[in-house]
Design a protein that fits this description.
single chain, alpha/beta, Urease, subunit C, domain 1, 2 domains, 4-stranded mixed β-sheet, 14 helices
Length: about 450
C-alpha cells in the first residue's frame, strides 16, 4: 500500500467525535501541521486538495509514550521473572538480557515501535539502559528503525555504571564506566538530537536509577543536558525497596538524592514516581519535574500507586508510559489510558478522575514531560499527529459518548494514525510493515533467549 499524505491540504472531515474544542467539522492538515479546525456544520476557510471522511471515527491527538524499554519485548511473560516484585524481577532477567544480540535488539525495537503506533501512539519514548558487549550502538539502531516506520522517536541514552561488585544491582557485564557512558552520550546528542519544533528524533540522557549509577554520572549528565538543550530522565520512587536502598547507601531519600545531583529542574522527568511524601510532592511540583505514570507496570509488579492528582496540583507535568514489555507485558498505550483511569479512580474516587483526565495525561501531559509544545493537542499550529478509532466492534455496541467509550469500553487498536501529516496506519495496518513476518522473526529470537538462559 502506498504511503499517503504530502504538503497538500487534507481535510479530515466530520468526525464522529473529536478531542478538540470547536472542531466538530474536523481539521485541515497542510504539510506536517494542523492549519485549521473546522466548526461543526462548516467548511474549511479555503479549498482543500483531499478529503477524508471520518464520520465513523473518533479522533484524538496522537498518544505520547514517555517511558518504555523496547528490548524487553523479547522477554514478555518470561518464566524466570513471573510473579516477582521489582528487585527480584530485575535480578532474574539480568541473566537473560546479557544475551541479547544486535539482530534481536533491532527486531525488538521494530516490534515495539509498530505495536505503539497501532495503539494510536505517534511519539515513542524509550529508556534504553542496556549496553552489554555488542550492543554499544543501541541508540543508533533505535534511531534507524524509527525512520521507515514514521513514528516520532524520543530515545534516551540510558546507562548503568554500578554493578553488584560496586554495591549496585546489575551484573558487571551489563554496566559501563562513567567516562564511556558520557562520551557516547555526547556522541549520540551530536549525531541525532534535534531540539527544534517538529523534530522527528530527539535524544535524552537517562542514567537508569539511584541503585545502579554513580552520583558523578548524574551530575555530569545534567551538565551535558544543559549544554545540548535536551531532557533528563530516570527511574525514581518506584518501590519501597528503592527508598530503603537510598537511605542505606546515601543516607537520604530518593528526592533528596535527586536534588543533590542537580536534577531538581524542569528538564527532568521521572518514571513511576510512586513513593513520594507530601513535602516531596510539593518540591517536585515547584521545580517543574515531570512524572511518567506507568499504571500497567505498577499493577503487574505491585509497586504502588502514583500520586498523579497531587503531583499535577503541585505543578508537575504528569504523562503516561507503557513501561517495559516484560513488566506490562505489552506496548499498547491506549490500553494504558484505560488502566490509568481505573487505578486512579480506585485511588481518588469515581468522580475525581475522568476519561478526559486519562487521555490528557497520555497526550498533553506526556508532551509536557518531554518539553514539547508542538504535539499533544489538536489545535492550529501543532504537528498533525492524530489517531482515529472506529467503534465498530461488539465491545462498543450501546455506547453513547464516543470519547468515553474509547477508554471505558477498552479501545486498543487505531484504524488510522497520522504522524507529521502522513498516514502511517491505514485500515488498522502499519504501512510498509508485514506484521506476520515481524512477529515470526521476533518470536524466533525471543525463544532462542529462553533456551540460552
Amino acid at each position: 500500500m502506498a504511503e499517503t499524505g504530502t504538503s497538500r491540504r487534507v481535510w479530515i472531515r466530520n468526525p464522529l467525535a473529536i478531542l478538540a474544542e470547536n472542531a466538530g467539522g474536523g481539521l485541515v492538515v497542510e504539510g506536517t501541521r494542523i492549519v485549521e479546525l473546522v466548526p461543526a456544520g462548516a467548511q474549511p476557510s479555503s479549498p482543500v486538495d483531499e478529503t477524508f471522511d471520518s464520520s465513523r471515527h473518533v479522533v484524538i491527538p496522537g498518544l505520547v509514550n514517555t517511558h518504555h524499554h523496547f528490548f524487553q519485548t523479547l522477554t514478555r511473560a518470561h518464566p524466570v521473572a513471573l510473579n516477582k516484585p521489582l528487585f527480584p524481577w530485575l535480578q532474574a532477567l539480568y541473566t537473560v538480557w546479557d544475551k541479547i544480540t544486535p539482530d534481536a535488539f533491532r527486531l525488538a525495537t521494530r516490534l515495539a515501535y509498530t505495536e505503539l503506533l497501532l495503539s494510536g501512539c505517534t511519539t515513542a519514548g524509550d529508556h534504553h539502559y542496556l549496553f552489554p558487549k555488542g550492543l554499544e550502538s543501541s541508540v543508533d539502531i533505535q534511531v534507524e528503525e524509527a525512520g521507515p516506520i514514521g513514528i516520532r522517536a524520543f530515545v534516551t541514552r540510558g546507562s548503568m555504571s554500578l554493578s553488584v561488585r560496586d554495591g549496585g544491582l546489575p551484573p558487571e557485564c551489563l554496566t559501563q564506566d562513567d567516562d564511556t557512558i558520557l562520551a557516547d552520550s555526547e556522541r549520540v546528542l551530536r549525531l541525532f538530537h534535534d531540539p527544534k519544533p517538529g523534530a522527528m528524533v530527539q535524544i535524552g540522557l537517562a542514567p537508569c536509577s539511584p541503585f545502579n549509577v554513580t552520583k558523578r554520572l548524574m551530575r555530569e549528565s545534567a551538565a551535558l543536558a544543559e549544554r545540548y538543550d535536551c531532557r533528563l530522565h530516570t527511574h525514581l520512587g518506584e518501590t519501597l525497596d528503592e527508598d530503603r536502598y537510598c537511605l542505606e547507601i546515601f543516607g537520604q531519600r530518593p528526592v533528596d538524592y535527586l536534588e543533590e545531583v542537580g536534577w531538581m529542574q524542569s528538564r527532568a522527568w521521572l518514571a513511576h514516581g510512586i513513593h513520594f511524601n507530601d513535602e516531596e510532592v510539593g518540591r517536585l511540583g515547584k521545580a517543574g519535574v515531570g512524572v511518567c505514570h506507568c499504571p500497567t507496570s505498577n499493577m503487574t509488579l505491585a509497586s504502588g500507586q502514583c500520586r498523579t492528582c497531587e503531583l499535577e496540583a503541585a505543578g508537575s507535568p504528569v504523562g503516561l508510559g507503557v513501561d517495559g514489555s516484560a513488566s506490562n507485558d505489552n506496548s499498547n498505550l491506549m490500553e494504558g489510558v484505560r488502566h490509568a483511569l481505573m487505578i486512579n479512580r480506585l485511588t481518588y474516587g469515581a468522580e475525581r478522575v475522568t476519561h478526559l483526565d486519562a487521555l490528557r495525561w497520555a497526550t498533553e501531559g506526556s508532551a509536557a514531560c518531554l518539553g514539547r509544545k508542538d504535539i499533544g493537542r489538536i489545535e492550529e499550529g501543532r504537528e498533525a499527529d492524530v489517531a482515529l478509532f472506529t467503534l465498530d466492534e461488539l465491545r462498543f455496541s450501546g455506547a453513547h459518548d464516543p470519547l468515553a467509550a474509547l477508554v471505558l469500553c477498552g479501545a486498543y487498536k487505531a484504524d488510522r494514525v497520522m504522524v507529521a501529516g502522513k498516514w502511517r496506519v491505514v485500515d488498522g495496518q502499519p504501512l510498509g510493515i508485514e506484521t506476520g513476518q515481524l512477529r515470526e522473526a521476533h518470536t524466533r529470537l525471543a525463544h532462542s533467549l529462553l533456551g540460552a538462559s
